[in-house]
Amino acid sequence: MENSEKKADENLIALKKKDENNIRKNVVISIVFSTMLFIGFIVCAICDIATSGKLTWSMIPMSSIIFAWIVSFPVMILGKKGFLGGLIAISIFTIPYLYILSDLINVKAVFSIGAIMSLISIVYLWILFGIVNRLKMRKLFALGIIFLSLIPFMILVNIALSKFISEPIIDVWDILSIFIMLIVAFAFFVCDYAKNKGLVK
């Protein structure tokens, strides 16, 4: 009894040390990543001021750098646990970012088209997050569902784009893509079934 309790305590200590090491590693990665983005931000500003006398074109990469940092930082600092934070950041900041970008480059289509595509993509990302979170113990089955869900997502994107650029909703390449996704999804379902039945390890 004492040995089992001692072993359990040792396992807990080992897990705590592993978590602490992961946190330290994530902090280092986050600092390096943030520093690199900050250097890029400063270089863009300096080059723009040196050539133009003020901030002009540099506003585009600078705003993109800020957006990239906001979205990716939760994942950098928390690892897998930060995916939810990153997804929330994408959901909140993508539309404002597209609005700012369209204003900076003076192309309104960036916002009008990009906002619709972003909303569709964000909804799809939340669906993927829900699928993966719900099926943690059945990763192969989850992958099959994800590939199947790509089909309606692709069709929905094509429908939205067809309103702006007068393209057909489905062409030959789309049909080929759907066929490939069905095959891949079926393969994952078969592998999941075989694994659950003990046919494969």
Model description:
With 201 residues, the chain is mostly helical. The chain contains six helices and no strands. The chain has two domains: 1-121, no CATH class; 135-201. The chain has helices at residues 2-52, 59-78, 83-105, 108-134, 139-165, 172-196. α3 (83-105) runs antiparallel to α4 and α5 packs antiparallel against α6 (172-196). The mean pLDDT is 82.
Task: Note the overall shape.
Answer: flat
Give the number of domains.
2
Q: How many β strands by DSSP?
A: 0
pLDDT averaged residue by residue: 82
Structural class category:
mainly alpha
Secondary structure: helix percent: over 70%
Please write the string of helix (H) and strand (E) elements. HHHHHH
Q: Regions with pLDDT < 50 over 5+ consecutive residues?
A: none
Number of helices: 6
* Rg (C-alpha, Å): 23 Å
Largest sheet: none
Beta-strand portion reads: under 5%
Distance between the termini: 33 Å
Keywords:
0% strand; 201 residues; 2 domains; mainly alpha
What's the layout of helices and strands?
Blueprint: H1 2-52, H2 59-78, H3 83-105, H4 108-134, H5 139-165, H6 172-196
